[in-house]
Each structure stands twice: as structure tokens, then as C-alpha cells.
Amino acid sequence: MNMATQDTKSPAHAHLRHVALIRRCAGLRPARTAVVHPCDALSLAAAVEAAREDLIVPVLVGPEEKIRIAANAAQLDISSFRLLSTLHSHAAAEKAVNLACTGEVEAIMKGSLHTDELMHEVVRPGSGLSTGRRVSHVYLFDVPDYPRPLFITDAAVNIAPGLAEKRDICQNAIDLAHILGIAEPKVAILSAVETVSDKLRSTVDAAALSKMAERGQIAGALVDGPLAFDNAVSPEAAGIKGIHSSVAGQADILVVPDIESGNMLAKQLTFFDHADGAGIVVGARIPIMLTSRADPPRTRMASAALALLLAEARRRA
Fold first, then answer.
1. CA distance linking residue 183 with residue 305, whole number of Å
2. Residue 114: which pLDDT band, with cuts at 50, 70 and 90?
3. Mean per-residue pLDDT for 131-141?
4. How confident is the model at residue 9 (pLDDT cuts 50, 70, 90)?
5. Which tens digit of pLDDT belongs to each residue from 94-105?
6. Minimal CB count within 10 Å: which of 54, 70, 249, 291?
């Protein structure tokens, strides 16, 4: 199913876009996935649930005793999963990356270790997972009142990206949208205002990114900015401000200025607008799931579905 055609808008739509995303994976070979340091009930449950939905084949990587204690306490059956024992979480992250480099796994799922500990190993020079592009995190939000899937990037990995990093962040999100069937996504580069000011760096970066897209340095999308959030997602707001562009009021992808603004925007959508945000790290050789302990099961499954669709695209490349 092409995600661009899903215009479910009712607040009672029960997050049907993420349900459709999961169903889209039916018949695909599950992605062999290194689950890194799954030493608590929530991270183990995420792996078990994704395996039950035929989205992943888990390879549990971490201290065996801790993993088995957590599984027994939560009454989770992990007997059919491969388990590779390591001394601690750092060794688990290193082992998972090695598995990815040798092709033994097609994806990585974060367990109960800190995100920076896992990502440090992923981006370490010589890790073997680099594609030459900056890695970045993309949320795919199912917002009940928004008429299309909404991507937000980067709200989890890059703290204060510069222009070159933002270029990669844009392209990573565009490439993901293409895999999901959105042929020419509309990318809004966000700031607090719609005009360029040398006093506000995000507006200068946004203008530069828009020009880079015109010159082919960012490909496969319509890019415009700076745009404030309201003008990016609301045709009415854009009309009132007199903003005329192919992106304003109908953005598919929102590129935030920094991790703070992105994180706050993502959490506001989640807790105030009842949106579901599946997340994935892209730009590396394999997809990486950074599931949160606060994520409901549906969101964790949607993240696993994203990883599988990315793995499938790589299989066919």
C-alpha cells in the first residue's frame, strides 16, 4: 500500500496508518535483528512481539544471566531465540555492530542500554556501518488530525547539526519516504519565522537547504524553508501569512533546527495529540531501532516494520 494515498483523518481512526504499515510487511522474510542488551522486560517484550508478528528474527546480545532472569520474571519465552552472551552493555553494542558488518544480522534493536552507548559504537570510525553519510533519526508519525504520514527529523541523534549534517538529515528522510511509496515528498525546513535573518541561524540554514535542493544537492523532493510549524502543516496559516509554495501547509517531512526542538515537538504530538511515532535510525548500512520504554506495543511494532521495509529495500538493491 502506498502511504501517500492514506488520508485517514478522523481522530477515531485508531492509528490506521501504522496498522497498514505493519500489514504491508506480510509475506516478507523477517529481518535478522541483533537485540542489544535486552536485560529488562520491556526490551525483551519488544523483541518477542516483533518476532510474533514475523517482523524480526531476534538475536539476543548481552549478559546471558541477566537476559534469562528478565525473561523468567516477565514470563517471556525466548527459548527459540539465538543468544550471544557478552560481559556488559558496551560489549553487546560492539558485538551487534560486528554481526551487522559480517551480514549475520540485517537490523539492530536497542535494548536496555543508553542510546549514546549504542550509537557511539555504530558511528565509531572503522565500525564498518558507515555509508559516508551522516546517520540520523526519523520519526514517522501517525497524527489523527493530519491527512498524511508525518516525518520528523532529527529528534534523537544529532544534537546541533550544521548545514552539511542537515543536508544528510534531509536526504536520509527523503530516501525513507521513497521506500514507503512517497515519490516526491514535501520537505519543510523549520524555524521560528518564515523570513531569513542573520540573527537566527536556522533561517539561514533553511534558505541554503532550499537552494541546495534547487541545485540538485538534495534530490527527490520538494524543499522549502524557512517555515514556521504552523505554516508547514496548515494551509490556512500559510494563506494568512501569504506564503505561496508547493510545500507550505502540506509538508510530509519536517526538518527541525536541533535535537531540543525536535524532541519537544515529537513529545507534544505524542502526549497532546495522541499521535504514534515509530522511529528508525537511517544513514548507516542497516536500520537501527531506538525503541523507548514509553512506547506502546503498536509503536514498537511499527518501528520494526520500518526496519523490515528498509532491510527489504537493501535486499533488492
1. 19
2. very high
3. 96
4. very low
5. 999 999 999 999
6. 54
- Which residue blocks in the chain are alpha helix, DSSP H? 16-23, 41-52, 64-74, 89-101, 115-123, 163-179, 201-214, 229-233, 235-240, 259-272, 297-316
Which cell goes with 29? 522474510
In sequence order, which residues have a C-beta less than 8 Å from that of residue 301 and are 6 or more positions away? Answer: 18, 22, 49, 50, 53, 55
Q: Which of 75, 21, 77, 71 is nearest to 52 (CA)?
A: 77
Q: Sketch out the chain's domains with CATH numbers.
A: 17-130+284-317 (3.40.50.10950), 134-283 (3.40.718.10)
pLDDT at residue 76 is higher than 80: yes
Q: Which residues of 23-40 are buried (b: 16+ CB within 10 A; e: fewer)?
A: ebbeeeebbbbbbbbbbb
- Is the pLDDT reported for residue 257 higher than 90? yes
Q: Pick left, alpha or beta for residue 249 (phi over 0 → left; psi -120 to 50 → alpha; otherwise beta).
A: left
Alpha-carbon distances, residue 37 vs 52, 104, 278, 310, 314 (angstroms) = 20, 17, 21, 23, 25
Rounded to whole angstroms, how far apart are CA atoms 284 and 282?
Answer: 6
- Average pLDDT on 111-119 reads 94
